[in-house]
Amino acid sequence: IVKEVLNGFNCIVFAYGQTGTGKTYTMEGGMRNKAGELPAEAGIIPRADRQIFDTLEGQNADYSMKVTFWELYNEEITDFLASEEPSKSSEERQKKHVSLMEDGKGCVVVRDLEEEAVYSENDIYNLLERGAARRRTTDTLLNKRSSRSHSVFSITIHVKEMTVGDEELIKCGKLNLVDLARSENISRSGAREARAREAGEINKSLLTLGRVITALVEHFIHIA
Ligand SMILES: Nc1ncnc2c1ncn2[C@@H]1O[C@H](COP(=O)(O)OP(=O)(O)OP(=O)(O)O)[C@@H](O)[C@H]1O
Predict the structure, then answer these.
(1) With b meaning 16 or more CB within 10 Å and e meaning fewer, what string describes 119-150?
(2) ipTM, 2 decimals?
């Protein structure tokens, strides 16, 4: 997948499953040890990070990279990389009004997201740790909210190449690493009222995602 991204494609890895099945663990895994080495239990994000930099450095490539890290909870977007304003509460600090819109090329983008330029493997790891720490804060505030939100860690990479005719070619690829909200059986989990509505919304969004993927695979024009 990383190779495709470096060739200018947009790729997504989803972690999907019931609560406690290891979605977050699979995406993030164990955090760095003191020597900065990847632990054996490192997740997909740090492993992809390492592969991206190993490949680009190995090719002596001319590149630039940006990262976004955000969460969708209850139809509201929280930017984990938004700068912190000390006067606000920790929940308010993160909540920034960002909205979804089309970019004119048929792609959906999240407007006003903080995009952090990164120059090393360590930079990406630091952003992952920063965002994951903020995610844990909302967890304690809102009864393990991370289980009920979709989080999206994206790395956008521009690679400059020279063509045979000595023209500049820029390849732009994006790797989206998504930790989906848990899939939930409402009747079995005993969720009531607001929580049942919330679980219903999560299931609806996961169902819609399944339909979108089917439509893409089958080359349907409309989503059934
Ligand atoms: N392969 C694994 N090896 C060791 N521990 C694991 C593994 N997978 C998950 N765990 C542990 O199991 C617990 C639940 O994992 P995790 O939080 O990743 O699940 P989840 O699917 O993201 O849950 P939720 O949907 O509730 O957010 C965590 O304490 C995690 O450290």
Answers:
(1) eebebbbebbeebbebbeebeeeeeebbbbbb
(2) 0.96
Q: Which of 14, 16, 24 to mutate to test the pocket of ligand 1 (most atoms within 8 A of CB)?
A: 24
Cα separation, 44 vs 29, in Å, equals 8
Closest residue CA from atom 10 of ligand 1: 22
135 lines ligand 1 (CB under 6 A): no
Cα–Cα distance measured from residue 194 to residue 174, given in angstroms and rounded to the nearest whole number: 36
Q: For the segment 147-162, what is each residue's pLDDT rounded down to a tens digit? A: 888 999 999 999 998 8
- Please tell me the residue having the least CA distance from ligand 1 atom 9: 22
For residues 156 and 91, what is the distance between their CA atoms, to the nearest angstrom?
27
Proportion of the chain above pLDDT 90, given as a percent: 38
Handedness of CA 190, 193, 149, 102 (dihedral sign): positive
What separation in angstroms does the CA of 16 have from each of 23, 103, 110?
A: 6, 28, 22
The CA-atom distances, in angstroms, between 208 and each of 71, 90, 91, 139, 197 are 18, 32, 28, 25, 16
